[in-house]
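Subject: complex prediction, re-run

Hi both,

The earlier run crashed halfway through, so I resubmitted it with identical inputs.
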Amino acid sequence: MSTATDTIEEFANKEYKYGFVSDIDADTFAAGLSEDVVRRISAIKGEPEFLLEWRLKAYRHWLTMTEPTWPHVKYPPIDYQNTIYYSAPKPKKVLNSLDEVDPDLLATFEKLGISLAEQKRLSNVAVDAVFDSVSVATTFKAKLYDLGIIFCSFSEAVREHPELIKQYLGSIVPYSDNYFATLNSAVFSDGSFCYIPKGVRCPMELSTYFRINAANTGQFERTLIIADEGSYVSYLEGCTAPMRDENQLHAAVVELIALPGATIKYSTVQNWYPGDKNGVGGIYNFVTKRGKCAKDAKISWTQVETGSAITWKYPSVILQGDNSIGEFYSVALTNNKQQADTGTKMIHLGKNTRSTIVSKGISAGNGQNTYRGLVKINSGADNARNYSQCDSLLLGDRCGAHTFPYIEVKNTTSQVEHEASTSKIGEDQIFYCKQRGLSAEDAVSMIVNGFCKEVFRELPMEFAVEAQKLLGVSLEGSVG
Amino acid sequence: MLTIKNLHANVQGKPILQGIDLQINPGEVHAIMGPNGSGKSTLANVLAGRDAYEVTQGEVTFLGKDLLELEPEVRAQEGIFLAFQYPVEIPGVNNTYFLKAALNSIRKYRGLDELDAMEFLKLVREKMNVLHIDQSLLNRPVNEGFSGGEKKRNEIFQMAVLDPKLAILDETDSGLDIDALQTVAEGVNALRNPDRGIIVVTHYQRLLNYIVPDFVHVLSNGRIVKSGTKELALELEAHGYGWIDSLEPATV
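This time it finished cleanly. Structure:
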């Protein structure tokens, strides 16, 4: 007879579905980091002088920094000289259509269930696919172009719109921000760029699928989204990675700029290889994500984090303009030996600024899940309001949930609320479901999905389905 | 439909059931009474297949199958329903969604087509009218924030929708005031039919004023010490549970 503990055990032992390596030639640097590597990356990309200078400033600054030790995660020291900083798939020629894309690459996307061809034909999603470090296909570009929307790879933006890059790059996350963001600033290879002109409502969800492929390659992508006055954009980021033995470092930076009255909705489903059940392999996901709201602007982060060996990320909003709004909705699941230290920072500077934080942490196996959040109300932020809710769900008795809320209030007219709960999937809940005819795996899936509901409903429809499936996949074959 | 022979069961190594014999036929309502700790709820949970209850001896046959060999969800799919003494809350899971998943899981097991949303809704409306269940109950998360009475009514409502062959009501009267008790009892009575067996586990006779049983069994120290018809419950009410201590265990 299977018990609730068995179910949780099996849940924790599920196989990673997306583990495979595609066989594509990569133009790859030797491992190691030096000023020369930074210069070579910049040269390959044909970057303007200002960008090289910016990279070098970052690199030199990085040399003076030390890796942060405050996160509630444990991992062996990373050898930064044993990491490869650039890898590009061949052929590198510019592609005009999907037909020109390497069939192996397309097959990889098929396996992931992200057929570009299919998406192009059937759905309303424009996809800028980053395969290792160079963007290989961009769709729907023409349609977006008509509206004046720029949606392209970061490299292309550097070539085509250097003035925008120069103005906004590092304006939210400066090159000196933190150890990993600074590393990224020095060596970032590619990423996505998006600009929505004044008053334009982007008619489709913009989507990027990132994928780390070549062995031992750190991926340092960079995303910059600028929503001009009164515009609206919803951006989706989804990730899977092949199975690997070596740990792979991933240090991305995302900067969002919401100009007066603009809205940016940024949704992430992250499903990178979490390592095996003994904690071998898996991605180190050390990401810096931050946005800044001008007057009446709104930035909403929604994330579903189920992958990676270690997740370290705090999508944040600087509420600079009056009446601006910041939101953070998060589901983080840790299994086996996975560790997550994630949360948000809401920095209230303007008057009548509002922020909402809803964080759902799920821990299974030996997983360790930490919520770390800062709500800061500055002296000028009259009538600022924050509501935070942090809920933790434990499956089994070997995992952990931790909450570190930091609240700094310097304005007495503000209101800050914080609610937290920790619960455990009880054997009695599972038995109740089984007695009604449901299998234990359906029961766990249902309970977990119920727990995450408040976050899932913030996701765009197709992502919500994917997110539920992702949790569902975790339960495949878990009973019987 | 249900035959229990010489059933022994332990909870945490401690013997609770010590030789239960019981035969239940379709259409019959059996009341199982007894003082606290006599093993009433243990019997209900053993029949449903709860983990913490370890069967050490005896056999249980349900519709020709060895019940004790089946997983709890298979027992449910075979048609056993337990109305819980303490219904469990499942936050965030919509009551209707839960019930639809349960019903379709059972239908699938029986080789029937799964009901789509429209068909299910029609069925739910039908049952709601019979049991006077409020619509708002359906849209709330399973048992979350329900009053004691609402939880018990929800159990009976689930029973109505899942249409079990054998229903076991575990102290369904506990914690209910007299009005709620009547409502729940009416619901159960509406679900009595010639094909369905019902076991009513209760501490008090008062529930049996509303759900009139065909048979009454008195449990003491893990054994049925006396069986009779509904009059036995009244007799028990008059004399108190102290009375049964003077009785010899019923012979098989």
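Chain B touches chain A at residues 48-51, 71-73, 75-77, 81-82, 84, 87-93, 98-99, 101-103, 105-106, 109, 141, 158, 162 (CB under 8 Å).

- K.
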